[in-house]
Amino acid sequence: MNISRAKSGASRSVNDPTAKGKGPPASGEAATISRTEAVQDGLRQAIIEQRLQPGAKLPEDAIGDAFGTSRTIAREALGRLAVEGLVELKPNRGAFVANPTLDEGRDVFVVRRGLERIVTECLAGRLKPGEIAVLRDHVARELAVSGHNEVESIRLAGEFHLLLARLTGNQVLVRYVTEVVSRCSLILAMYGRPHSSDCGVSEHGEIVDALIAGNAGRACELMDHHLAAVASRALLQEKAERDIRDVLAPYAARIRGLGA
Amino acid sequence: MNISRAKSGASRSVNDPTAKGKGPPASGEAATISRTEAVQDGLRQAIIEQRLQPGAKLPEDAIGDAFGTSRTIAREALGRLAVEGLVELKPNRGAFVANPTLDEGRDVFVVRRGLERIVTECLAGRLKPGEIAVLRDHVARELAVSGHNEVESIRLAGEFHLLLARLTGNQVLVRYVTEVVSRCSLILAMYGRPHSSDCGVSEHGEIVDALIAGNAGRACELMDHHLAAVASRALLQEKAERDIRDVLAPYAARIRGLGA
DNA sequence: TTGCTTCTGATATCGCATGCACTTGATGCA
DNA sequence: TGCATCAAGTGCATGCGATATCAGAAGCAA
Question: Which residue is nearest to the C1' sugar atom of D21, using CA?
Answer without folding.
Answer: B93
